[in-house]
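Subject: design request, 79 residues
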């Protein structure tokens, strides 16, 4: 998972990943991205960005969409 330092959504995404794994073994790494150049190099599409095998499976849902008031900006649990 890629995130900017202090991203308010990082803890929620971490909890959702843990819940989705349901005890299955997996390596989950949090990488704090310090600047825009690093974000581009790593393929970061927002903060946080979850990568599976180096690919952001939610990127197409994120691009060009505004979010309604009160929406946390994260994919729902069914995504």
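Subject: RE: design request

Done. Sequence follows.
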């Amino acid at each position: 998972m890629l995130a900017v330092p202090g991203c308010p959504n990082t803890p929620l995404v971490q909890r959702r990943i843990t819940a989705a794994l349901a005890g299955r073994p997996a390596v989950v790494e949090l990488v704090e991205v310090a600047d825009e150049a690093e974000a581009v190099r790593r393929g970061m599409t927002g903060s946080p960005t979850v990568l599976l095998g180096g690919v952001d499976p939610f990127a197409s849902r994120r691009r060009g969409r505004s979010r309604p008031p009160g929406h946390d900006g994260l994919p729902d649990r069914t995504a």
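The first strand starts at residue 2 and ends at 3.
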